[in-house]
Amino acid sequence: VQRRGRELNLSIFDVASGQGLSLGNYVPTFTFLNQFILFFDQYALSHTLWSPTSDALVLPVIIDGQNQIAVISTKSGRMSPISEGRIAFWSRQ
Prior knowledge:
Blueprint: E1 8-14, E2 19-26, H1 30-36, H2 40-43, E3 56-63, E4 66-73, E5 79-84
Antiparallel strand pairs: 1-2, 3-4, 4-5
């Protein structure tokens, strides 16, 4: 059961072209909301959700009541769960 009060709409915006794209609605994990989003300005300096090639995002989401790590395509919005987990980041290497 997903509570709609915690559901977020994930959208990206290309500054160069002026085009935006909604990638869908997701329910983030409690840990992501309360430990990352609240301090995003600090984490953004050392942690990234973007893949090294900028073609995907990694997000911790709740699917069927379970904490999952998912990769979301920035082209299609397709979500691919890859593991159980509460928070994840891409390596900058």
